[in-house]
Design brief:
The two termini are about 25 Å apart. The protein has one domain. By secondary structure, it is mainly α. The chain is globular, with a radius of gyration of 17 Å. About 70% of the residues lie in helices and about 0% in strands.
């Protein structure tokens, strides 16, 4: 018998301050793990993550910096989700949107001298694959905190709830593929690591979700 599909919307109106503090701590742990994975993936220099390809493409077209476009797109996504959905955008969504960059900078400072484009190819491949796995683990913890998820990740989460007959992993693969194709057409950079991320992230997150549940899930 087919397992019941996971739904992600949650009502957190009745949480007290202590419960919110606990949920946000879980989210921060997951966010740190996820961005360790992102850092290892980026340091391998074998491809850009799927959403960044889209941001790069918009940057090329608009003439704005990647960082500026990233902030603008995340804010637009949050505004759209607040206006059109309920139960998805939470305080942790803002945390995810603006804390990811500093976490990546921190891990880059730690590992950047050891893993980079000049490293042995086997080390770069291991870093890329490990990055995808660690990112997926961290993302599942963030989702299960029910404190909010990054705006770009919420796209797949919301669509997964709306499209009942399709599992989250395939929705995520579809969203990643959409960002990559559109970003590439706009001028973004695609590498072998990007394709690996498209294929692995969704299935790995869905695999990790049942194993990272907390009392806040």
């Amino acid at each position: 018998m087919e397992k019941q599909k996971t739904r992600f919307a949650s009502d957190t109106c009745n949480r007290n301050a202590k419960e919110w503090a606990g949920a946000l701590i879980v989210l921060l742990i997951g966010l740190t793990i996820a961005h360790l994975g992102v850092t290892l993936f980026l340091l391998s220099e074998l491809g850009t993550d799927t959403f960044t390809v889209f941001i790069q493409g918009l940057s090329v077209v608009s003439g704005l910096t990647v960082g500026t476009v990233h902030v603008i797109v995340l804010c637009i996504l949050m505004a759209m989700m607040l206006l059109t959905t309920r139960g998805y955008v939470k305080p942790g969504t803002v945390v995810c949107a603006f804390c990811g960059g500093p976490i990546i900078d921190f891990f880059t400072w730690i590992f950047g001298n050891y893993i980079n484009g000049d490293s042995a190819m086997i080390l770069r491949i291991i870093s890329m694959v490990a990055g995808c796995v660690i990112l997926s683990l961290g993302m599942s913890i963030v989702i299960n905190s029910s404190a909010g998820t990054g705006p770009n990740d919420l796209v797949a989460v919301i669509l997964s709830d709306k499209i009942e007959r399709v599992q989250f992993r395939w929705i995520r693969v579809g969203c990643d593929l959409f960002f990559v194709v559109l970003g590439f057409l706009l001028g973004g950079t695609v590498g072998v690591g990007t394709i690996v991320a498209v294929c692995l992230t969704g299935p790995l997150v869905q695999f990790c979700l049942p194993h990272t549940k907390t009392k806040f899930s």
